[in-house]
């Protein structure tokens, strides 16, 4: 390991298939789906009714009594995931200076459900129910600043709103903060609550599947909206060793690209470019990659585009390289998606176990890949790539490596 290596020392998860990384990992390996009929909003007026909702989350288990109501649902997810990550890393006692602990979180719409609630109160003449405190829960910065304020972390604090790739962007930028010595520890990842805005928006563009998410399947019909939070603790390798921290994996490098070719569909050029940038930043040859955790939304064009880009970058290896989609189990958790999926990827690298793509039944010649169908697979994973793409052509890929003694 190099002295400048950036390592993952803590994991925090709030997801539709488990709270805490161990429950989450167990569900991933079992191919357990978190996609169920939605309870959070009334879907009777919509053509679809399924989502990846978090149902077994109690904010009072993580946030001091009387304080949880001051935060929106997404910020509650973020604080809970941050606490789990800090505890996992052995940092709740803060051996580092608080001025040197940063926060870098990604989102798509932050706590937009707070605006939805205020809007409903205004439209239906319930202004007496409106509370000034509700207004300050929404701004995008609220998730990262809520973490900083709750844990009294006074280092750099950033909220990155690059939609469905935001978690990867946040992790990549957090690595930069450490490499530039702007911080000694950074909590990085993404958070997103379920919202009517997301659900209605994706239904309006006919992108939501009626029942389940089937990435790479010939009969895939779209994505499924989801929610959650995934946050990791990042440190420089020598610092982690000095305090005997848990070591999960190394972030070898990352890449970003913005093709700006289409509002909702990524381009093959842009997706291929971001993987190339990430591999170059990590100084990794495509031949050395053991696994790709795909963006894999289950929409016809997105999956087709990603497969074409992977084949361009990896050539003939793309036919046999394991490439699975976590969204088949979680749904698309928006700004938290790539962070949650990165945590699964980190655990695949640590434990040499690849998570499956569930709901796969019918081969698609345009997605002719090894998508690790329906069953997890034990296989050596020394280097993995995690892809994430977003509306407007915002793409980000991470390269994750095994820590070798």
Give an account of the 3D structure.
The protein is α/β, with parallel strands linked by helices. It has 2 domains: 6-242, Thiolase/Chalcone synthase (Peroxisomal Thiolase, Chain A, domain 1, 3-Layer(aba) Sandwich); 253-401, 3-Layer(aba) Sandwich (Peroxisomal Thiolase, Chain A, domain 1), CATH 3.40.47.10. The chain has 12 helices and 15 strands. The protein has helices spanning 21-30, 73-89, 112-123, 132-135, 142-151, 166-179, 196-204, 237-242, 268-282, 300-314, 327-330, 337-351; strands spanning 6-15, 18-19, 36-37, 50-51, 101-106, 157-160, 185-192, 228-236, 249-258, 291-293, 323-324, 353-354, 377-378, 383-390, 394-401. Strands 1, 2, 5, 6, 7, 8, 9, 10, 11, 14 and 15 form an 11-stranded mixed β-sheet that branches. The longest helix has 17 residues, at 73-89. The radius of gyration is 20 Å and the shape is globular.
């Amino acid at each position: 390991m190099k002295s400048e290596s950036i390592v993952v020392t803590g994991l925090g998860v709030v997801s539709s298939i488990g709270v805490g990384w161990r429950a989450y990992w167990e569900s991933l390996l079992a191919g357990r789906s978190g996609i169920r009929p939605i309870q959070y909003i009334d879907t009777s007026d919509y053509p679809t009714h399924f989502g990846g909702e978090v149902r077994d989350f109690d904010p009072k288990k993580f946030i001091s009594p009387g304080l949880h109501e001051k935060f929106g649902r997404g910020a509650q997810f973020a604080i809970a995931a941050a606490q789990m990550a800090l505890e996992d890393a052995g940092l709740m006692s803060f051996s580092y200076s608080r001025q040197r602990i940063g926060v870098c979180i990604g989102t798509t719409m932050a706590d937009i459900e707070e605006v939805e609630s205020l809007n409903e109160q205004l439209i239906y003449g319930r202004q007496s129910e409106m509370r000034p405190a509700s207004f300050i829960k929404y701004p995008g910065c609220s998730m990262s600043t809520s973490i900083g304020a709750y844990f009294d972390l006074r280092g750099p604090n950033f909220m990155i709103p690059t939609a469905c790739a935001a978690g990867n962007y946040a992790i990549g930028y957090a690595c930069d903060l450490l490499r530039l010595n702007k911080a000694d520890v950074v909590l990085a990842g993404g958070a997103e609550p379920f919202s009517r805005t997301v659900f209605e928006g994706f239904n309006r563009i006919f992108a939501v599947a009626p029942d389940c998410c089937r990435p790479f399947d010939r009969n895939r019909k779209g994505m499924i909206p989801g929610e959650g939070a995934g946050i990791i603790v990042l440190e420089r390798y020598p610092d982690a060793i000095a305090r005997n921290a848990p070591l999960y994996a190394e972030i070898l490098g990352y890449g970003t690209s913005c093709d700006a070719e289409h509002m909702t569909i990524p381009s093959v050029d842009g997706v291929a470019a971001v993987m190339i940038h990430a591999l170059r930043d990590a100084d990794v040859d495509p031949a050395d990659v053991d696994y790709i955790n795909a963006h894999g939304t289950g929409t016809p064009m997105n999956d087709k585009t990603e497969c074409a880009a992977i084949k361009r970058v990896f050539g003939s290896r793309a036919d046999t390289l394991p490439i699975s989609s976590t969204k088949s189990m979680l749904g698309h958790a928006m700004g938290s998606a790539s962070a949650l999926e990165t945590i699964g990827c980190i655990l695949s690298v640590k434990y040499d176990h690849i998570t499956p793509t569930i709901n796969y039944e019918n081969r698609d010649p345009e997605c002719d890949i090894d998508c690790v169908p329906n069953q997890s697979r034990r296989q050596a994973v020394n280097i993995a790539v995690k892809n994430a793409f977003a509306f407007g052509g915002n793409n980000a890929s991470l390269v994750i490596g095994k820590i070798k003694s």
